[in-house]
Amino acid sequence: MKKVAVVILNWNGRKLLEEFLPSVVNFTNTEIANIIIADNNSTDDSIEFLSSYYPTLEVIALPQNYGYADGYNKTLKLLNHEYYVLLNSDVEVTANWLDPLYQYIEQHTDVAAIQPKVLAQHNKSCFEYAGAAGGFIDKLGYPFCRGRIFNQVEKDTDQYNTPLEIFWATGACLFIRSSDYWNAGGLDASFFAHMEEIDLCWRLNARGRKLVCLPESTVYHVGGATLQEESPRKTFLNFRNNLLMLYKNLSENKFKRIYTQRKALDYLAALQFLISGKRPNASAILKAHREFRVIQKEYVKERDNNLQRTTNSPIKTIYQGSILYDFYLKKRKIFSDLKWLE
């Protein structure tokens, strides 16, 4: 059996499959990998398209739309491969994209997951928001990337072409050991979408496993193809899931200290949305906090389990500064300005 399963989760993405699946078929080394389409009960003609144009590809038809997290969980449970690649349907891969990732993780047994360099499909000279050249979080849980801080996206001038240990690897193209995936509990299905890969990566880090960005491999990502940028639904999921992630992975004392600060900062973000005429987004942030307070008690056992399996070593890829303070007050707009890690 081949060692790698490249799994594309699809929901009503016929047009995306038509545009981007050819690159996956043409540039994936099928001597080491199977290409598998998992369909989240699409109501468009995705299945018919695949049957007509890609009859040899394996298609797993799920009975309902489980979202990103549980859609992958239910699909991956059916597979027996040593490695999974969770690949978004709006990703264009490049020649020889898979082999460097495979070779690196084969040679580094302490690495649980790895990602390529992710550039913007609509502007291939720039990094892409969701992953860039590797993901990080700051001490308050705000995510950022090597190549992207908040909405400030850098041009790719080969400045981040060295492999680097990272905190989180993008869910747009996540190459992960199946053993690590399941040992860490897989993606959290209750997240539905957004932040779930960062939450998974936090659990991997906490268990002493490493994550790496390998820029030798490059892919192009559209981004926002499932939920449009700055949609209220996306705002809600990002803020709620970020709070859940913090609660699940921090001790009670640490969480309380951080939550006090986060609540104030998130309410400022809501005010900014309101001032800029985006009232639904402001309401989405308030709703995220309300829902978090209601459901956090459901995560007590999971949090206890996470903390019991955590090593005592500090996670060096958590930035101990405030990325908000650095970005808005110190005007450190690009990753290299932080003078951290590299």
TrEMBL record:
Residues annotated as transmembrane: none
Annotated keywords: Glycosyltransferase, Transferase
Similarity comment: family membership: Belongs to the glycosyltransferase 2 family.
Record organism: Dysgonomonas capnocytophagoides
CDD domains named in the record: GT_2_like_c
Ranges for domain Glycosyltransferase 2-like: 6-115
Protein name: Glycosyltransferase family 2 protein
Domain of life: Bacteria
GO molecular function, one term: glycosyltransferase activity
Chain segments annotated as coiled-coil in the UniProt record: none
